[in-house]
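Ligand: 3-methyl-2-oxobutanoic acid. Inputs:
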Amino acid sequence: MIKKINQIIKKKSFKKIVCLTAYSKNISKILDKHCDITLVGDSLANVLYGMKNTHSISLSTIIEHSISVKKGIKKSLMVVDMPKGSYQNPLQAKRNAKLIVKKTKCDAVKIESNNKNFKIIKEIIKANIPVMGHIGYTPQFKNNFKVEGKNKKEIKRLIGEAKSIERAGAFSIVLECLTPDTAKIITNLLRIPTIGIGSSSYCDGQILVTDDMLGLSGFYPKFVKKYINLNSLIEKAVKKYSKDVKAKRFPNNKNFLYGK
Ligand code: KIV
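Predicted complex:
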């Protein structure tokens, strides 16, 4: 686990860090071949469960999906998002982080910052569990989407937050929806790698929600590049299947288990 973490840290500044989200084994098995980090994001609340935000996804649901994701992972660093409400104080955070690691065998957990919970990060790390931080647009604590770092006051606050997370011992930090200049300043100031989402190529690595970049989720903000339109490919296949079943073309002789 520590070896994998050190490999990620070492990449800073000279090799981009590739990260994507996974919620199940079939997807993590594919990502694992090409990603440095596989994140079981609490975005699964919106993406898979159709919830309006990430606020009520439970710890047990995240754990169940992570157990599935782990089955597809051989080499990438597996990080699990701690859901809202599971790290309200150091004791609870440590207990739940230990539970996540025990049940899922993941390598690290991710904590969204509210610019106050640095002690919580410290406590989890004291229990030998690596932590990834997350600043900027943090959906667990902010209801309205907004690009951050547009003025001096915000930049100062974000720098302070990022530095405190580094000081608390995090091994990397997600920068979500920061202005390119702010992402650049923070990336240059920190020793740990920054992982950007909607925060420009100045970051040390990039992450996207896999369902978004595959064209499956229906959520495509400007910072998402859709690499394929899986929705329409799946629909085409389903339409063909439906036609075949109705026309009695499926199953045919080749699909019978017994007989000729
Ligand atoms: O929940 C998630 O998928 C995330 C990434 C977008 C960073 O936190």
